[in-house]
Design a protein that fits this description.
Order of helices and strands: HHH
Number of domains: 1
Low-confidence stretches: none
Distance between the termini: 38 Å
Strand content: under 5%
Number of strands: 0
Number of helices: 3
Largest sheet: none
Oligomer: single chain
Helix content: 40-55%
């Protein structure tokens, strides 16, 4: 049987480990997904209830969530 092709996941190529904020945000998103929340408005509502707060301590909106995820993905 042939060995599987090895590759790096995108997060394995980061220049630094995730920040505490990134870890908290990722954990909260995972918990939301685990509860069956998969749409942006539902996810934003979950984050506003469970945390962490959005950028600059503001409440999350669908737009601020999209901007923040794009910013983090580009890092």
């Amino acid at each position: 049987m042939a060995e599987p092709t090895l590759y790096n996941e995108t997060h394995q190529n980061r220049s630094a480990p995730p920040s505490a904020y990134e870890g908290l945000l990722g954990d909260s998103i995972e918990r939301a997904f685990g509860q069956g929340i998969h749409d942006a408005p539902g996810l934003v509502a979950y984050l506003n209830q469970a945390g962490p707060s959005g950028p600059n301590g503001q409440a999350w909106t669908v737009e601020s969530y999209a901007r923040e995820i794009a910013r983090l993905a580009a890092a």
